[in-house]
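URGENT: need a sanity check before tomorrow's submission.

F., can you look over the Deoxyribodipyrimidine photo-lyase record below? I want to be sure the sequence and structure line up before it goes out.
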Amino acid sequence: MSTINSSEPPTKKSKVVKPSDYVKPSSSSNISSDFIKTLEKHRKSTAGSISEFKFNKKRAKVLSEAQEFPEWGEGVIYWMFRDERVHDECFTAGIDAHNIVPCWIASDKQEYGARTIRNKINSKLPEFLTEFPPVIKHPYSGKLKAEETIDWEAAEESLQVDKTVGPVAQIKSGYRAALATLESFVNKRISLYETARNDPTKKLPIFFFRKDKREYLYSRSELEEALTHDDLWNSAQIQLTKHAKMHGFLRMYWAKKILEWTKTPEEALSTAIYLNDKYSMDGRDPSGFVGCMWSICGIHDQGWAERAVFGKIRYMNYAGCKRKFDVAAFIARYGGKVHKYTKK
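Structure tokens as predicted:
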């Protein structure tokens, strides 16, 4: 989101960007020098700097009553998550930071299947799938200065967040770590993507429900602690809590079983979103939210043959997973166990 304070124009001239202003990535991650040099050269050929990059203004959507973006206005950039509202006192524009093609450009309605939206997105890729310009150091320093040394440990301690969820040791952050992952994918794994993308052992409109009696019912805490009778589901939940991610195919199975094992669809959706938001790297993110909605509510999916509990929502089961991938290997990797079910 961008908010503009248009009190008065600045008087100083724009600073000329020098080659030394380009941000240099750290040297902590394992990545070949040729790969990073190729990327840097390609990005610099796109534009002299990010300030010279030809930005597609369709990526921005005006959210405020004020429609004009003053050239001399001072901008404030901040993140906005779902359930947060935009104040309308000044010019405010939204940027879709999650999608290559902005969602308001891709489609003007709720799509009910991948096949109905795929062509809409693909037809717009030539316009929006653009190169990244080089990153530069900001030419101006901020007006606000810290008068005293900041106690970052105290600042972190003051955060009112769930501290039971620790950092994920297996995932390295930073520019070079991301490029190392990209290089590994391009050189080693992309050839397997088409045939193995739905195999979690490889690294790589809302429909109505039927209020049938559930064979199994679990509380939120039992689900969170992976204490179900299903060792595959438990392994997927362990992957989520330990690695902050879950394979896409298994997240469908995971969420659909929550629907099957809770009293109501509302409880199922609430529980799935709670667990995803708490543990997943894409928590509080559209992809995670819609993933739960697709699995439990049938959003962006078609209706299927009606069955107990699921109604017309797409069904998934353990046997189907065994036909897709090596279930035993996945369970062995994450250690999910079969827990005896106590009828409630």
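My own read: The chain has 13 helices and four strands. The beta strands are 2-5, 60-62, 74-77, 92-95. If you see anything odd, call me.
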